[in-house]
């Protein structure tokens, strides 16, 4: 059984990059995506026309996969961890 409390609304995640400057990524839950239990669209955070960085999909057991080609494995892991462990700040 999955006990994670996933991100439920748009948030910004700080991603440490090995090659290049660190970046803030906009993480947007996609409630209409039907091919996974959870889907999160990823975008650059501060551009007027943000770059689409792909998405992270979660299955019912909490396993995830990145659907895209712009993020390294380390960056994907940081974003998946952010989504899984997100705690809303009051």
Write the layout of secondary structure elements.
Layout: E1 11-15, E2 23-29, E3 38-44, E4 52-58, E5 64-67, H1 73-84
Antiparallel strand pairs: 1-2, 2-3, 3-4, 4-5
| Adjacency order of strands in the biggest sheet | 1-2-3-4-5
Task: Report the biggest beta sheet as strand number plus sense, adding barrel if it closes.
Answer: 5 strands, antiparallel
Shape: globular
**In percent terms, what proportion of residues is strand?**
25-35%
Rg (C-alpha, Å): 13 Å
Helix share bin? 10-25%
What class would the helix/strand composition place it in?
alpha+beta
The chain-level mean pLDDT equals 88
Low-confidence parts, pLDDT < 50 over ≥5 residues?
Answer: none
CA distance, first residue to last residue: 28 Å
Q: SSE order in H/E notation?
A: EEEEEH
The overall strand count is 5
Helical element count?
1
Q: What can you see in these coordinates?
A:
- This protein is α+β, with helices and mostly antiparallel strands and 90 residues long.
- It has one helix and five strands.
- It has a five-stranded antiparallel sheet, covered by helices on one side.
- It starts with 10 loop residues before the first strand and ends in a 6-residue tail after the last helix.
